[in-house]
Design a protein that fits this description.
mainly beta; about 55% strand
Length: about 280
């Protein structure tokens, strides 16, 4: 019970920045009786906008999804269009796979050979949810493996992997969901050869292991529309995360949109995107 009081207290203080001297009772009245919309992140896994949640589909059900992300900074413009799918073959288990189409340009470069177009890294994996106590958050552990990119024009071939722990807390009888995840992420070495006229260049990306952290919340405005805020470090790729604000709506067919600044040395200045999800 103490952990529940702590979570409620933190949520009340956060929303206190937006409301005038609210009490927890005021917040409960605002979201009482509503339900957040369970959906998928941009990778097609059960999640908020960017990170995974501990939520999994019901047994023998799943979903397919498609998203569009646009990022820009002074050096380059990038478009990512990930297609993802997930399925529950066993109770409390989700298996998933996704692959993005990538279009990336460097407008100020003296050669167009740096531009990239094609299929990115094919990622597959799964997660297992377990409930220790109905009054505590749901927990999940997951792992993913990435192979690629499948198009040599994007980059050299490499192998990535990640391990993650997730805690998701749907506040009882309220349209409020809190989520946090911690990941160990490994990006494999990749070599890319570029030819410009008579010159040939080799670009090398060294292997790198990092820690990813994501914190987020979903608030149900109605049973058909939720708002989401999330901050993620190293979630999109190594040294690339995002502070995202977005909305999620719909019932059977869901839609969502997001916007926010990039976080990390390799992140664009901002991200803008959206997507749809269809269950089966």
């Amino acid at each position: 019970m103490n952990s529940i009081k702590v979570v409620r207290g933190l949520m009340a203080m956060t929303l206190g920045c937006l409301l005038t001297s609210p009490s927890w009772a005021d917040i409960e009245d605002l979201f009482a009786g509503k339900k957040v919309i369970e959906g998928v992140n941009v990778s097609g896994r059960g999640g908020l906008l960017l990170a995974d949640t501990a939520q999994v589909p019901k047994l023998h059900t799943g979903s397919v999804s498609g998203h569009f992300l646009y990022g820009s900074e002074n050096a380059y413009d990038a478009i990512f269009m990930p297609i993802g799918a997930r399925y529950s073959p066993m109770k409390d288990v989700e298996v998933s796979a996704n692959i993005p189409f990538i279009y990336q340009t460097y407008p100020d470069s003296t050669t167009g050979e740096l531009d990239s177009t094609g299929l990115g890294v094919f990622t597959f994996g799964g997660k297992y949810r377990f409930v220790l106590d109905p009054e505590l958050p749901d927990f999940a552990v997951g792992a993913n493996i990435g192979l690629g990119p499948l198009s040599s024009d994007v980059n050299g071939f490499g192998v990535d992997w990640n391990l993650k722990g997730i805690a998701t807390y749907p506040v009882p009888h309220q349209g409020i969901l809190l989520n946090g995840s911690l990941s160990l992420i490994h990006n494999g070495r990749r070599d890319r050869e570029i030819t410009s006229g008579a010159n040939r260049y080799e670009l090398e990306s060294k292997s790198e292991t990092s820690v990813g952290l994501s914190l987020g919340a979903e608030l149900a405005f109605t049973n058909k529309l939720s708002g989401i805020v999330e901050v993620s470090a190293n979630e999109l790729s190594a040294n690339s995360g995002m502070f995202a604000v977005g909305v999620r709506g719909g019932q059977k067919i869901q839609y969502q949109a997001l916007i926010g600044p990039g976080l990390g040395s390799d992140a664009p200045d901002f991200w803008l995107g959206g997507g749809v999800m269809m269950p089966f």
